[in-house]
Amino acid sequence: MNAETNTESIDLTKFSPEQLKAALAKVESKKDNDRLAYKQLVEQTVPQAIFTLCAASEMISNAKTKAFKYFEDVLKLKADVFGIKEKQQSHTFSYKNGEITIGYRVTDGWDDTVSAGIAKVEKYISSLATNESTASLVNIVFNLLKKDAKGNLKGSRVLELQKLTKEINDEEFTDGVNIISESYKPVRSVWYVEATHIDDDGTRTPIPLSASSVDFSQGYKFDFYSEPVKS
Predict the structure, then answer these.
(1) What is the distance between the alpha carbons of residues 56 and 14, in angstroms, rounded to a whole number?
(2) Which InterPro entries does the UniProt entry name for this protein (predicted)?
(3) Tens place of pLDDT for every residue, the chain, 231 residues?
């Protein structure tokens, strides 16, 4: 006999209003206590997790710093040996069973004049959509001027626009492209280190260095979602 049948078989007329009210209050009280216990558990658990993750973050930070310090001497020696100090975004070093790349990433950035350049290019190129051949060119240019999800123009596409100035050979179009290219102000975002283990057979396995890419400890499986939550 299930809970629903038990509930239906109870004759509520046998209980006084006071008794029913007391029973309801007891149920509500338990519900409130359970919810309070949940909130208290969250308040106890969050600080523990934050402490653990802060410790892990500090360990990764120290490891990253140490890795860059290792290669400071390597890069100094390289500059002395080859007689030139390279100003490149990244450096890759390897040996038989591993490879490490250190460097920095660059985020595209533009000053406020970029909108004027884009408007000038769009105004000129729109006037060309008179036949199939020119319409195709218009589509190419507009695709190059498309912005990403964050509303930014991609720096790599400006190079393609500059190549088109030689083909189109129009002063107005060239001026617009020049305004865009001169407004480009790339920003260095983050320093990174990437490491790869190389087996004797040549198999390359990236070493995960972020909380998102690293797997759980051996033997642990987060299976909270494997079964439906019981009410």
Answers:
(1) 62
(2) Phage_B3_Orf6
(3) 444 445 456 666 677 777 767 777 777 778 888 888 999 999 999 999 999 988 988 888 888 888 898 888 888 898 898 888 877 889 999 998 999 998 888 888 899 999 999 999 988 888 876 767 677 788 888 888 888 877 778 888 888 899 888 888 889 899 999 999 999 998 888 888 899 999 999 899 999 888 666 666 777 776 655 555 454
Rounded Cα gap, residues 148 and 9, in angstroms = 64
Q: Where are the alpha helices (DSSP H) in 3-154?
A: 3-9, 17-82, 114-126, 132-144
Q: Which amino acid is at 36?
A: L
Residues 6+ apart with CB under 8 A from 63: 209
- If you ran DSSP here, which 8-state letter would residue 218 be given? T
- Please tell me the distance from the alpha carbon of residue 138 to that of residue 131, in angstroms, as a whole number: 10
The SS3 of residue 91 is strand
Nearest to 174 by CA among 188, 185, 163, 183: 163
Tokens of 206: 């990236």
CB neighbour class for 46 (10 Å; exposed up to 12, middle 13-18, buried from 19):
exposed
Phi and psi at residue 31, to the nearest 5°: -60, -45
Residue 68 CA to its chain's centroid (Å): 23
The pair of three-digit structure tokens given for residue 149, joined into one six-digit string: 């999800």
What are all long-range contacts of 72-75, with beta carbons under 8 Å and residues at least 24 apart? none
Looking at residue 153, the DSSP 8-state letter turns out to be B
pTM of the model: 0.62
